[in-house]
């Protein structure tokens, strides 16, 4: 069962790796931020050339309670300024994972990006998980959209002339 602090926040156990004791714990940048910044636990500077990928260690492990997940997402400023993003965004940390959290970054920009120890490289959002039980059905309820796929709801509304054949 999940524990709550005196102010109602979820309490999650965290452990720093021995080589990351000097790095800050994930933290919210503002009082109303949804995501906590994750820092790079690099032992030396790393250069990501355009198109290059790198799995970056954060130096932390967490023990999420059952019924929760942590989503690892890009930091918008890094994405806009440098083209640096999380490759499998959002990445999911399941409640039964106890390994070191690592972030797969990719440089989609046009210039090299230098990463240094302690750089804020991603953000982590902890959220409840909804468990699903499937109910096999012969028919599904009808909607206005029905089988319209990618881009379907925008076609014909703004003068778009994109051919969305086969739902794309």
Automatic annotation (TrEMBL):
It catalyses: dUTP + H2O = dUMP + diphosphate + H(+). Residues 143-168 are annotated as: Disordered. One of its GO terms (molecular function) is dUTP diphosphatase activity. One of its GO terms (biological process) is dUTP catabolic process. Pathway: Pyrimidine metabolism; dUMP biosynthesis; dUMP from dCTP (dUTP route): step 2/2. It comes from the Bacteria. Its EC number is 3.6.1.23. Residues 148-157 have a biased composition (Gly residues). This is Deoxyuridine 5'-triphosphate nucleotidohydrolase. It comes from Capsulimonas corticalis. The lineage of its organism: Bacteria, Bacillati, Armatimonadota, Armatimonadia, Capsulimonadales.
């Amino acid at each position: 069962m999940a524990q709550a602090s005196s102010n109602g926040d979820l309490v999650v156990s965290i452990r720093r790796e021995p080589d990351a004791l000097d790095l800050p714990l994930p933290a919210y940048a503002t009082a109303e931020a949804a995501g906590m910044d994750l820092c790079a636990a690099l032992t030396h500077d790393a250069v990501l050339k355009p198109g290059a990928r790198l799995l970056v260690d954060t130096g932390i492990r967490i023990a999420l309670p059952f019924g929760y997940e942590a989503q690892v997402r890009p930091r918008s400023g890094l994405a806009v300024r440098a083209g640096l993003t999380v490759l499998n965004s959002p990445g999911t940390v399941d409640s039964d994972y106890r390994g070191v959290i690592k972030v797969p970054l990719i440089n989609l920009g046009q210039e090299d990006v230098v990463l240094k120890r302690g750089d804020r490289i991603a953000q982590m959002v902890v959220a409840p998980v909804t468990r699903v039980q499937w109910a096999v059905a012969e028919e599904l309820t009808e909607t206005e959209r029905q089988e319209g796929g990618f881009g379907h709801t925008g076609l014909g509304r703004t003068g778009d002339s994109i051919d969305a054949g086969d739902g794309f």
